[in-house]
Amino acid sequence: MTLQTLKNINRSGSVPAEASTFPAMLEKFKGEIARALPKHINPDRMARIALTAFRMNPKLGECDPRSVFAAVIQASQLGLEVGLMGEAHLVPFGDQCQLIPGYTGLMKLARQSGLVQDIYAHEVRVNDKFTLKLGMDRSLEHEPLTGPGGFPASDEERGEVVGFYAVAVFKDGSRTFVAMSRKEVEKIRDNSKGYQAAKRYKKESVWDSDFTAMGLKTAIRRLCKFLPKSPELATALALDAASEQGKAQNLNLNDVIEGNYAPVVIDEETGEVLDADEKVGAKPDPTAQKPKETKAEIMGGVKATQVKVNEGVTAFVVDPAEQGDVAKPNAKLATAIKAMEKATTNEALDEIYIRLEADFEGTDLEALMREYRRIKANISSLI
What pTM was computed for the model? Predict the structure, then answer.
């Protein structure tokens, strides 16, 4: 079965009998996983571990098989293995499957960004020696409790977890770090929509079964806010944020297999997802009041419709017939794309993108990310 067949299955809204389950789709379209994977990852291994992850969670069998396949393809494009290794996980969300990066997956993507030499995180326990110094000469020292012979003591001997920290080492040898107390991590946990839902329905959450791993992930996620982010790391962080806030990731199979999936937008200050739907397939409220529209002139007399989107928020929609120079392509974005197209290796492309991404936001950043992926795919095909 071809790539076009897979696209047709997604558009039709129905799945043929020969691909009506995720295992069947995996067998039929295994080539798409190979197409999405970086060259250093074995597609047969990726298919096997995806099937194992699927079979270990019976709830995934209740999800639309296309959404499970889309999550596996997205994991493949990020270069993350799903399942027990902890790089990424397949998690049911209603009748859809979500891709949740683990803290080891986030660290892997940070290392692969090109500018981060190493990244790591540890928990601090009550009997450890821990010293944190901030200000002009920041430092962090952690000496875990040791036992006979100087070897690390057991977790039971070291005592309960009191905090977490994460450290990044850049290629030039400089370092940055974040440290978080247990109370701070628990506050983030308590605000997680996934955790709240688990408590509401009296189900065990991953926070309950593996608090330490979730605390490490929380520290890594905060550290990543201060790191140069590759498109892969930015996508993984956005997928994770949507899940934490109980929002749909909207992994569309067509966008994913074409490498055009654009993650939801995150507010850098609050970590909130700005444009994800509250529910998968949520329909607009027919009783909702429509925005008020008035005519206005902007930018040298160009006519536009002034739309009041929300209290204190106004948008201007320019009539296409009136756009003139306004409709010209974004010159800054076009220049950035040309700069990326000059790259002849993936490493050079990554460095160019990381330098450029700070200058863009919103839809321009999404467009830059899509072009990055297109150019990277072209370079990879020549290697």
Answer: 0.67
